[in-house]
């Protein structure tokens, strides 16, 4: 395996785990894990908490990294075999 392939696979795995974790931490109508952690840190103007905004950012960034890694893997392995 090449070094580039290993790096892409590590980024792919980490971004997938971060994305799953951040999606699971999103609250659903105020009963999620982020609501238990946040406590009373809600912004009355926007209706969302600071933690929810940060979770949104983390989820979007990890999804973009995940998609870029998948596209890189498609280039590295066009037919499922390593290009030499």
What sort of overall outline do the alpha carbons produce when their principal axes are compared?
A: elongated
Fraction of residues in helices?
A: 55-70%
Beta-strand percentage? under 5%
Integer-rounded radius of gyration? 17 Å
Mind describing the biggest β-sheet?
none
Number of strands: 0
User: Strand pairing plus helix content: what structural class?
Assistant: mainly alpha
SSE string, helix = H, strand = E? HHH
Q: Span between N and C termini?
A: 10 Å
Q: What is the average per-residue confidence, as pLDDT, rounded to a whole number? A: 79
Count of alpha and pi helical runs: 3
The stretches of 5 or more residues where confidence is low (pLDDT under 50) are none
Compact overview of the structure:
The protein is an all-alpha fold and 84 residues long.
Structural descriptors:
84 residues, mainly alpha, 3 helices
What does this structure look like?
With 84 residues, the chain is an all-alpha fold. Helix 1 runs antiparallel to helix 3.
Write the layout of secondary structure elements.
Elements: H1 3-25, H2 33-38, H3 50-76
Helix pairs in contact: 1-3
